[in-house]
Amino acid sequence: MATVSSASPDSAASAGPVRYRCAACGNLTRFDVTTTQRTRAYHHYSLSGDLSVEEPEVLTEVVEEVSCRWCGSGKAVAVLPLAVPASASAEPAPAGEPGPAADSGPPPERSGA
Ligand SMILES: [Zn+2]
Q: CB 73: neighbour CB atoms within 10 A?
């Protein structure tokens, strides 16, 4: 078997390319966002029962409520399109995937039940 490195880079676009703004107090940065996510992931167990969750994927994400952290109200919160020039988006890219380390060969199968 060849090691298949699946070409699925972190599709981290599921956070929603929007910003919020509270028209009541001018808050642009702090909100309580209630979302419902439906996700799927590959649960990979070793024979000893250790679990590693791989390939997490957000199937659907629904924003249910956004409330301003300052006023505590969501009545004045407006959604802004993310057309803001990326001046402050200096987030470092996640460096590599935390893959399993040096997994040499398949585990020995136990014969019999
Ligand atoms: Zn507010």
A: 12
Residue-level length of the chain:
113
- Ligand 1 centre distance from Cα of residue 15 (Å): 21
Q: How far is CA 75 from its chain centroid?
A: 27
Q: List the beta bridge partners of residue 22.
A: 77
Tell me how far the alpha carbon of residue 112 lies from the centroid of ligand 1, in angstroms.
65
Instruction: Tell me the per-residue pLDDT of 13-37, one tens digit each, with 9 for 90 and over.
Output: 445 578 999 999 999 999 999 999 9
How far, in Å, from the CA of 68 to the mean position of ligand 1? 5
Tokens linked to 14? 């599921």
Residues 6+ apart with CB under 8 A from 1: none
Cα–Cα distance between 49 and 61 in angstroms, integer?
30
- In this structure, the number of other CB atoms found within 10 A of the CB of residue 27 comes to 17
Give pLDDT tens digits for 68-83: 999 999 999 999 877 6
pTM greater than 0.90? no
